[in-house]
Amino acid sequence: MLQTVDKAYTDEPEVLDTVLTVAATSRVERLRETLLSGKSGISIDRARIETRIMKETEGEPMVARRAKVFAAVAREMPIDILPDELIVGCFSGKPLCWNVSPADGPGLEKRLFSQGSSKGGSRLLGVFKENLWNEATFSDAEKTELKEDLIPYWKGEGSYEKTMSGRNYQQIRDTRNVHVGHNCVGYGKVLAKGFLGIKKDAEERLTRIDHGEPGDAAKVPFLEGVITSMDAAAELGARFAARARELAASEANTGRKAELLKMAEVCDRVPANPARSFHEAVQSYFFTWILLFWEQPSVASVSPGAADQFLYPYFERDMQVGLTTIEEAQELIDCYILKLNQIPNESLSTHLSVGGLKANGNDATNELSYLFIEAMMHTRLMAPIFSVQVHNKVRDELLIKAGQLCSLGTGHPQFINHDVVVAQTLARGAMGGPPITLADARSATPIGCVELAIPGKDAGWTGGAGIINFAACMEYVLTNGVRRTDGRKVGAETGEPRQFTSFDEVKEAYRQQVAWELANGKKVVNVQERTIAEMAPTVYESALIDDCIERGICRELGGAHHNSSNQILPIGPSDAADSLTAIRKLVFEDNKITMAELCDALDNNFEGADELRQLLLAAPKYGNDDDYADEQAALVSHLVASEGMKIGKNVRGGNGGIVGGSAWWLFAAIGAIVGALPSGRLTGEPLNDAHSPCSGYDVNGPTAVLKSMGKIDNVELMGGVLLNLRLDPGVFKKQDGLKRLVGLVRAFIDQQILHVQFNVIASDTLRAAQKEPDKYRDLLVKVAGYSVFFVQLSKPNQDAIIARTAHGL
Length: 809
Known about the structure:
Number of strands: 18
Largest sheet: 7 strands, mixed
Strand order of the largest sheet: 5-6-7-8-15-14-18
Mean pLDDT: 87
Distance between the termini: 26 Å
Helix content: 40-55%
Oligomer: single chain
Low-confidence stretches: 1-13, 115-134, 157-177
């Protein structure tokens, strides 16, 4: 199934037909269409279970109560097996359904019961305008239950304040997004041991507790909670096995009947016990993943990690003994990928990767790597966030296959430079805590948009993430800490900018603003982490992370082997860099503008100062392989990394100053409250997304962008560094288009950049989708690290994507 560069691409009119090794089966096409035509829903099943158990367990340790909530959810959540499915289980009780949760905070009541209605039911207004939650409705009985039973208890009208250890509903709101996922648990441990094997680990640890030692005795509730959780998780397979046999008994189609009975046999075995076959391994792998959402329904980006590595031993064994074929394995993986798309919102998605390095430093690519890429071609949907981990030993064949997927214009895959992954992970280990071995560093995997974790050893993000708004820091340098859009003093006082007499003074003021932002962000994250450790410890997830059982504490309290966390997300670094470049050149070198003239023009959003603005716009810009401009981009990133290292430990004892990651969708939303900048940007315009050049100013081609990005120290930004590029679809209409892309990715690897991803869509197509969204319902684009259906985005985010430069090759 491998191809060479010379014959990989033709001028056939349908790109998909030219890149597929095998066509998707009719089953896969039907399941894909079901997802595309499905509508979002809302469920209170989990909220009902949680509320009941929390009422019943008042006065018990919180860790025990949360374990009992999880156990009840695992045993009582509605389940079903849908037509055509080969992999069973669901994020919620049914596909595309959102689980309402007390963790959604006090604003939940307003979001649940807005003025809008559809078919007589109140609409749920989601956090993001892009999603489809506003189409979902509650029944009258559910609305009554929420208003009269569930929400009053959560608000403290019952005993919820006591339930939450004295915290009130306002504090619950303030921590509503603290469990942001961004972790990869020990899936390999589940595949090898099963949940009952992990239960035995907790039972053995419990026998070594010294009940006469208060510190040791305090570990008992957590360990008992693990046993409770593993027992319940182990029963999930039996529930689905019973449902499969029930459906088989009334199934008239003999082929489908046999499939249901086979699924019953698989679920009889897993996830309770070790997987033996490829089908059992994929099913157990998926069960492990959905149970993470059942424990914390609001968690974001729960990663299954390097799927080709976890599952390959089972695939290889089945292939050797003739228990499966390539075609059967491909369809099973296709079905697995489709299951990942049953989540109702892209922000709750997952990052799955293939490729990378083995523990011995050799290429980890295997046959499953290609099957997963093929599955992404077959499904062509939002989920998962999908990356191909490349490195200086990567084979051309993998780059060709990944390039073929890229040519489809779905925004998949990301390219992650595993050489930089290893360097970043080792660098994190040098900042304190247990040593990170070379083997562990080589196992590190993307867990969100671009963030990284060591599977089964990291605590993940147990708190929220602070935002470092590079562009706002630049604004505050020129206002002495005042935000222009509302006149509030929100930054540090760094002096009257009109009196700055050197560029060094500007840089020092900028450093102080960055330090101020980081310190404030860290305070917020610390509050969130402390609150979540007290209110919502995750017993199930902790059991799947090394050392939590041995230490007898959950990951939120420092039980994990590694406790560092990525906490500072970057927004607008290129806007800040271009602004510094303009000030340096036009004010202090060319003397064409004074600081007073600049500040006055910015205060007035360039009204009456268009000539001055044109000078600023014409100044050198990051993204064009211009050392003069790129020097400031490197400076901005280094400042935030070095200041982040001064932050110190997080509440779990790990490093709390890891900087980097993705700006999510916020580059447009936050740009709306940032004033005019010396780069020439006007008030309210979208900021640049993560470390990509400012839209429209990278004019020297994609290789120049990579060379600019390579001048930034990607290693010290240990939370990840995201780069978005747009390619003109015409690239892939050329005979050597794919070969050129492979060359570009090779250049990316050589430049020691962590990440790059491509939108391969024409601007005319995007504008047509704005006008007639119904005709473009499956048009996918990369926003930040994730793909989303373009027509579901807000207009500002759509416009920001259209504004990105479309490069040729």
